[in-house]
Design goal:
- The chain is of the alpha+beta class and 429 residues long.
- It is 50% helix and 11% strand.
- The chain has helices at 14-22, 25-31, 83-97, 126-131, 139-152, 161-171, 175-184, 204-212, 214-229, 264-282, 293-321, 334-369, 375-378, 383-402, 410-419; strands spanning 39-42, 49-55, 60-66, 69-70, 74-78, 105-109, 114-118, 124-125, 233-235, 244-246, 251-253, 260-262.
- α10 (264-282) runs antiparallel to α11, α10 packs across α12 (334-369) and α12 (334-369) packs antiparallel against α14 (383-402).
- The longest helix is centred in the C-terminal third of the chain and has 36 residues, at 334-369.
- It is globular, with a radius of gyration of 22 Å.
Length: 429
């Protein structure tokens, strides 16, 4: 249900949250017991929002409230509260298209930029599990189902032109979050920017080379243009391993506040990038040589399976339900028409793969030289060891972005990663 729009925004701290939730009969009943007995813990470790876990005698919930600024930076970087509205819209649409793969929304108040969701337990943030070398057997099937269904069914392959344009319009106001992506991923890591940081002094030289690498600047600018001008489908917009909660048997995608209509390859590339970063970071978490070899093999196998299973599921959906205004079936009648359309489907997926490779590279570089970093690397205690792992990832990312055409298959990506596993870069300092 959606809360009343009336009333002024205010930040709900613990006492305010208790009073507010007590005034919601369905939520209070779900929690059980007296409101005074509810345990409320602030657990937000992200960059933007407040997140509370509330537990009562009967059950628990998660409460997320947008702040009017970027939490990681502070009030000097204001941010519109409307992002909570777009997150609610995205979660609602994703729940329809990929049921069981996003948290259930229990309550939303647009004026307070607040959403109450089911509490995901015993799920943990996937990124934390990967740092600990945990393998997740359900992940490939779940994440590829999520991506295939949310991307296909919001694209021109499934929607009429009118439906698609109305859907684009519904998310067009989320441009402030898009601007963060446009700056932090596609621009700042390649220039001097106040909020950039990296593992200094060891990566100082590499950072300087990125700022002078015109071939890389052309490649990232092309990707930025595609991000800005390619409304292919409703994308999550921030689909990294910190936005995925997992157990051995379940996967839930959270935090779609960056959602808008953009290029499909951005979401797919984000998943691939975060797996590749987990692979390169793994060596830095070793306590003994080779102890994480089985985990690293699983990560690269997972990279390959994510693309191949996503492709299979996406194509199956297209073959069974390509009723959108793109590629009208009336133009591809008979056996010859069907064969030509199938060939075009394969070409479409090859173009999508190239986009995913490029966007994956962009996500890797921004996590090493931009504002917000990954714990995959950050939790490597020795900075020189961390820098080695990061430099390996960046070398692969540059090749993926500048030489995208040389990566024809996902095996080309994993083979290149494998070759760089023990490569020793020249570090500064």
């Amino acid at each position: 249900m959606t809360g009343d729009r009336a009333g002024d925004y205010r930040i709900l701290h613990e006492a305010d949250s208790r009073d507010y939730l007590a005034g919601l009969p369905d939520i209070a009943a779900l929690l059980g017991g007296e409101p005074a007995s509810w345990a409320i813990t602030e657990v937000g470790d992200g960059n933007l929002n407040l997140v509370f876990i509330v537990k009562g005698a009967r059950g628990g919930i998660a409460v997320k409230q947008a702040l009017p600024y970027v939490r990681l930076v502070g009030e000097s970087w204001p941010l519109p509260l409307s992002r909570a509205h777009y997150e609610y819209l995205a979660l609602s649409r994703q729940a329809q298209l990929a049921p069981g793969l996003v948290p259930a929304v229990l309550h939303h108040n647009e004026a307070l930029a607040l959403t109450v969701m089911e509490l995901l337990e015993p799920h943990i943030i996937m990124r934390k599990g990967l740092v600990a070398a945990t393998r997740y057997p359900r992940f490939v099937d779940d994440i590829t189902t999520f991506m295939a269904r949310t991307l296909f069914f919001t694209s021109d392959l499934a929607l009429s032109a009118a439906e698609k344009k109305e859907a684009i319009a519904a998310f067009a106001g989320n441009h402030a979050l898009c601007k963060i992506t446009e700056d932090l991923i596609f621009t700042d890591p390649y220039r001097i920017a106040e909020q950039n940081r990296w593992t200094a002094p060891y990566l100082d030289g590499l950072a300087a080379r990125l700022r002078e690498d015109l071939e890389l600047h052309v490649a990232i600018s092309r990707l930025k243009l595609k991000f800005m001008a390619g409304p292919e489908a409703l994308i999550h917009g921030d689909l990294h391993t910190g936005s995925i909660m997992v157990t051995d048997s379940q996967t839930r995608v959270i935090d779609p506040e960056f959602a808008f209509y953009g290029p499909m390859g951005f979401d797919v590339g984000a998943v691939l990038a975060n797996l590749l970063m987990a692979y390169f970071a793994s060596a830095g978490h070793e306590r003994a040589p080779g102890e994480r070899a089985a985990f690293e093999a699983w990560v690269l196998e997972t990279v390959e399976q994510v693309w191949t299973e996503f492709t299979r599921k996406f194509l199956d959906l297209w073959r069974a339900g390509g009723t959108g205004d793109a590629y009208p079936v009336s133009l591809f009648a008979g056996e010859q028409g069907a064969a030509r359309l199938e060939a075009e489907r394969q070409s479409y997926m090859q173009r999508l793969f190239a986009d995913a490779v490029g966007f994956a590279a962009a996500k890797i570089i921004r996590r090493i030289f931009g504002l917000a970093h990954n714990i995959d690397f950050e939790l490597i205690e020795d900075p020189r060891t961390r820098a080695v792992s990061e430099a390996r990832a960046v070398r692969l990312a540059r090749a993926m972005m500048v030489e995208t055409a040389s990566f024809r298959t996902i095996a080309d990506v994993t083979n290149a990663a494998r070759k760089l596993r023990d490569w020793m870069p020249e570090l500064s300092g």
